[in-house]
Amino acid sequence: MCNATYTVRFGVRLRGSIHTFTGYRSVHSEHLEPVKGGIRFALSVNQDEVEALAALMTYKCALVETPFGGSKGGLCIDPRAWDTHELEQITRRFAYELIKRDLINPSQNVPAPDMGTGEREMAWIMDQYMRMHTTDINAAACVTGKPLYCGGISGRVEATGRGVQYALREFFRHPDDVAEAGLSGSLDGKRVIVQGLGNVGYHAAKFLSEEDGAIITGIIERDGALYSPDGLDVEAVHDWLLRHGGIKGFPAPYHRPEGAAVLEEACDILIPAAMEGVINLSNAERIQAPLIVEAANGPITAGADEILRAKGAVIIPDLYANAGGVTVSYFEWVKNLSHIRFGRMERRREEARHELIVKELERLDKYLGDAWAMSPDFKRKYLRGADELELVRSGLDDTMREAYQSMREVWRSRSDVNDLRTAAYLVAIARVAANYAAKGL
Ligand code: GLU
Predict the structure, then answer these.
(1) Residues 6+ apart with CB under 8 A from 78
(2) pTM, to two decimals
(3) Are 213 and 317 within one domain?
(4) What is the whole-number distance in angstroms between the Cα of residue 109 and the centre of ligand 1?
(5) Which pLDDT band, with edges at 50, 70 and 90, does 255 fall under?
(6) In this structure, are 267 and 146 located in the same domain?
(7) Does one domain contain both 142 and 19?
(8) How does pLDDT run across 289-308, given as a tens digit for each residue?
(9) Binning pLDDT at 50, 70 and 90, where does residue 192 land?
(10) 36-47, pLDDT tens digit by residue?
(11) Is 144 in the pocket of ligand 1 (CB under 6 A)?
(12) Residue 376 is assigned to a structural domain of this protein
């Protein structure tokens, strides 16, 4: 249950009349502050959903060790029904209502993007906060997921999809776990179906296909699906989607009007990256994927989860699989509070020290003649100090590996724990409980 949920109804004069909107910001647990979690814009937003998602944020943050409590916000709106300047007015007004109650504040409550929101909305929210707190030197830390030149951080946009990739890479480092799903080997050549080519699904599909050799055989969108056993060109589909607002008409031979049916196609890995409840009692029995990665929040209902596990499927749960977003949000918040970009102080120093080693190796190279030579691109690769993007990716990779291992240890060592989701909750709840207990609460 959530500690508190604030509901606000406010009117905005648009197109000659007053339009009333309903929004929520829910705080689940304040054992650590600020509390953290996205703000979504969707017509389906309601109090129950916001509260459930706030709770998920508490456990997600605990699992990946980001020092935040859990929160979530939502506005009942179809963002596509409004022009940019109208959306800005609505967003600013919603932000104003939350800011004046400290439900947006760098030390109390820090929102981020979620379904229907992105960098643009975060910049409006930050600016609104700054107008209301003109002397707060840490104002930029009141929200994360901002554009790079508005206090954002490199790699935040790709972060959730990148996290899905790192989660899968870590899973495939454990052959026993891979065997549990009836699979073997590496990600190379694995057939992947992705539902939702939004920010999360697009980046996950892009990285898995470009960097790990996975084959994206299916892409499901609002207006149907594309399916090809030989693999789809993720960039081409994404370009089409941006230009046409859907995948309909995409020049591929395998267009399927009934998108959801593609969830049931044979594949190795299914990545629901769209919205909650898409795998439920009505289709769970027919889902063939032996490994499902919950890139969205709550895509599998509790009933479906049971059915899938009974069939032997392995589910990498949302609170772990999509935690890349909040992890990089944490880095952005730290960057805002420290007022300096990661790597700015040490990058050239690192390069200078590497240069010393390269010079010594070059001396050795000359001395040894034909007997030994430096590998051709060693010098170029080794000389480069890490920039912010590399540091963010390194921090994210480390986070995803550590969190998987903590979950896995419980999954593997306890006979009463049969799945990763239960293991993830046990790890997260134990950490939250330890925090409360230490403070005597
Ligand atoms: N909305 C994202 C989530 O559900 C990101 C939250 C954040 O960065 O605070 O995890």
Answers:
(1) 42, 43
(2) 0.96
(3) yes
(4) 12
(5) confident
(6) no
(7) yes
(8) 999 999 999 999 999 999 99
(9) very high
(10) 999 999 999 999
(11) yes
(12) no
In the chain, what percentage of residues exceed pLDDT 90?
Answer: 94
Q: Which atom of ligand 1 is nearest to the CA of 328?
A: 8
Mean pLDDT, residues 256-261: 89
Q: Please indicate, yes or no, if residue 354 is contained in any of the structural domains.
A: no
Q: Is the dihedral of CA 327, 332, 335, 337 positive or negative?
A: negative
38 lines ligand 1 (CB under 6 A): yes
Report CA(66)–ligand 1 centroid distance (Å): 12
Among 385, 344, 381, 345, which residue's Cα sits nearest to residue 153? Answer: 344
**CB of 70 closer than 6 A to ligand 1?**
no
The atom number, within ligand 1, closest to the CA of 60 reads 10
Q: Residue 50's domain spans which residues?
A: 4-150
Cα distance between residue 186 and residue 245, in whole Å: 34
| Ligand 1 center from residue 330 Cα (angstroms) | 10
Residue 112 in contact with ligand 1 by CB distance below 6 A = yes
Q: State the distance from the centre of ligand 1 to the C-alpha of 36, rounded, in angstroms.
A: 7
Please give the tally of structural domains in the chain.
Answer: 2
pLDDT at 441: 80
Q: Please check whether residues 11 and 131 belong to one and the same domain.
A: yes
**Residues 314 and 434 grouped into a single domain:** yes
Complete edge-to-edge strand list for the sheet that includes strand 255-256: 255-256, 224-227, 215-221, 191-195, 269-272, 291-293, 314-316
In a domain, 46, yes or no: yes
Ligand 1 atom closest to 56 (CA): 4
- Cβ atoms of 325 and 347 closer than 8 Å: no
Tell me the one-letter amino acid at 40.
R
- Same domain for 197 and 107, yes or no, is no
Q: Assess whether the C-beta atom of 326 lies below 6 angstroms from ligand 1.
A: yes
Q: Is residue 381 part of a domain?
A: no
Q: If DSSP codes are grouped into helix, strand and coil, which group holds residue 221? A: strand
pLDDT, one tens digit per residue, over 18-28 is 999 999 999 99
